[in-house]
Design goal:
This protein is an alpha+beta fold. Helix content is about 20%, strand content about 45%. The chain has helices at about 1-30, 45-50; strands at about 55, 60-65, 70-80, 85-95, 100-110, 115-130, 135, 140, 145-150, 155-160, 160-165, 165-170, 180-185, 190.
Length: about 200
């Protein structure tokens, strides 16, 4: 028993000293950072970045007044000549307070700061968790409320079948029930295709 307590006493001293030696060797062996080292860009790339500023892989995330969450990401963003920004290769997700989720892809997006809107352009694809899939050329998303409006014709599929229309609009109903109204107008055509079980 006496030998055991002597061993425990030695280990209480030896183990912390070994840990201290290991930690100090990490700092001694750590690679030095050269502040004068080269940046991973060529002279031409640096000149291009200075001439045309841009952000790589930007992401916008926010919550609307009606409780929806909106996330927009892109490959690259540049400041716009006006009061906003443009981005290319866009992926957006909109989750509304009623539990529905929409995924959108587009060729580009313009953020309009004055009107608090994001204009998806260059071909927009929308897939909704309620069973809707649509294609349109351009669509405006409002950033304050979970609303969307196509700039022109829309075509796609819904739970009832194939739908084509001159325009599509999604707006909150405003009754406090966290529900949304999907409106098609401008020459609406529905080809009813019942689901087979």
């Amino acid at each position: 028993m006496d030998r055991h307590s002597r061993l425990v006493g030695w280990l209480k001293v030896a183990l912390p000293l070994m840990a201290l030696a290991i930690l100090s060797s990490l700092f001694l062996v750590a690679r030095q950072i050269d502040p004068q080292g080269t940046i991973g860009f060529s002279e031409a790339e640096l000149a291009d970045r200075l001439r045309e500023p841009r952000i790589t892989a930007p992401t916008y995330a926010g919550t609307t007044r009606d409780g929806a969450t909106l996330t927009i990401s892109a490959d690259e963003a540049r400041p716009d000549a006006g009061n906003g920004a443009t981005a290319a290769a866009v992926h957006a997700e909109l989750s509304t307070a009623d539990g529905a989720r929409s995924v959108l892809t587009a060729g580009a997006v313009r953020f309009l700061q004055e009107t608090r809107a994001a204009v998806l352009e260059g071909g927009v694809l929308l897939a909704n968790s309620l069973g809707y899939e649509f294609r349109t050329e351009a669509m405006t998303l409002t950033l304050d409320t979970a609303g969307a409006k196509t700039a022109g014709a829309v075509e796609g599929f819904g739970p009832l079948g194939r739908i084509t229309a001159g325009q599509m609009q999604i707006t909150p109903t405003g009754d406090g029930a966290e529900t949304y109204l999907l409106v098609f107008n401008g020459g609406v055509r529905l080809i009813y295709q019942p689901r087979t079980r």
